[in-house]
Each structure stands twice: as structure tokens, then as C-alpha cells.
Amino acid sequence: MDLAAFRASRDGDTPPDGLTDPLLALWHAAKGDWRQAHEIAQRAGAAGDSDADWVHAYLHRVEGDTSNAGYWYRRSRQAEAKGPLEEEWAAISTVLLERS
């Protein structure tokens, strides 16, 4: 799946099959379900998934909790994002789609 298809999937009621947990969390975030996205990212991060930690950082940035986001960026070993949230969503999604 590429970014265009992933973006288009947001128009549906259910996520595409086969998404990794970090991508699933991003899908829910894009649908406006921050709590579900956070639960998925938190669970996957606790299992050692650094990609989930990256998504977790993004989610705290969406929430407006930049200090908590900073912790998760450091934990994921990713640079702290400063640009528009939609651009960050697309950048993270692109990397994770390429890895899956």
C-alpha cells in the first residue's frame, strides 16, 4: 500500500487489513479517534516497537502535550517534529508503509 491508498482508506469505516500497529494507530488518529490510536501505540510501544513510540510522540503532539511528545520522540530516536501535523502524519505514514 502506498500513501495515496492509505489516505484514501480513511474514507472507509474500517481500517485496511494487515496494518502494523503503528499504522493502525495512525489510521485511527486520522479518523479522529485519538483514544483508540493512543491505546494501540501505547500497547505496541510497551512491547518494544520503536515505530509505535514515534506514533505515540505524534499523538501527544496532536493532543498539545509537547513535553510528553518530546519524551516519546527521544525514546523512538526520531527528531522532534515542528511542522504541520498533517505533514508529520504523512511523513510517518510514508516511512512505515515502506517498512511494511
Account of the 3D structure:
There is one protein chain. With about 100 residues, this protein is mostly helical. It is built from 6 helices and no strands. The protein has helices at about 5-10, 20-30, 35-45, 50-65, 65-75, 85-100. Helix 2 runs parallel beside helix 4 (about 50-65), helix 3 packs antiparallel against helix 4 and helix 4 (about 50-65) runs antiparallel to helix 6 (about 85-100).
Short description:
This protein has 100 residues and is mostly helical. It has helices at 3-9, 21-30, 34-46, 50-63, 66-76, 85-99.
Question: What labels would you give this structure?
Answer:
70% helix
Helical fraction equals over 70%
By secondary-structure content and strand pairing, the structural class works out as mainly alpha
Distance between the termini: 9 Å
CA radius of gyration is 12 Å
Report the average pLDDT across residues. 97
User: So how many helices?
Assistant: 6
Fraction in beta strands:
under 5%
Query: Which outline best applies?
Result: globular
